[in-house]
Amino acid sequence: MATAKRFAAHTDDEIKKKQCLLTPKNTRKCNDKAERAFQAYLTEVGEPKRILELEVDELDKHLKGFWFSLRKIPKEEDGENAGLHYKASSLDNMRYSLKRFFQENGKKFDITKDTEFSDSRGAFKSAMTELKEMGLGSTAHHKEITQEGKV
To answer: Over 90: is that where the pLDDT of 126 sits?
Structure first.
């Protein structure tokens, strides 16, 4: 009588796909958007390498410029808002999306904490300060709903 195997065999690709499916759809969307934005920046500044091909020091250098250069994508429907700065919260979201992108692709570093990224972290903080000084650091919240307003 043949015995069933206790453990199933999985390839690294199968495991990666299963892990990817556990990531919420909107998180994957944000990660993809951040990766596309950073790759577009690299292309615009003449960097021939793809994101995952960059060495840590090159990545730090490019992230430093990216945080100050990032703007909204010009679209016809945006009109006068085309090419304007993102809000500080959007820049922060972009940063953590890039962090997840690198980690999902097997990189062992953390662009938000590791000492190798001190220059880009400093630039990120400066860019956030600049956005806040421009009035793009706060979120407009709606008024609190009172008991009378719930009727």
So the answer is: yes
d(CA 1, CA 145): 69
What pLDDT score was predicted for residue 151?
58
pLDDT of residue 143: 77
Specify the 3-state DSSP secondary structure of 55: coil
What amino acid occupies position 124?
F
As a whole number of angstroms, the distance between CA 64 and CA 60 comes to 6
- Residue 148 and residue 150: Cα distance in Å, rounded? 6
- H helices present in 1-151, as ranges: 12-22, 25-44, 56-69, 88-104, 118-133
Q: What is the mean pLDDT of residues 95-108?
A: 94
Which of 88, 75, 118, 95 is closest to 30 using CA atoms? Answer: 95
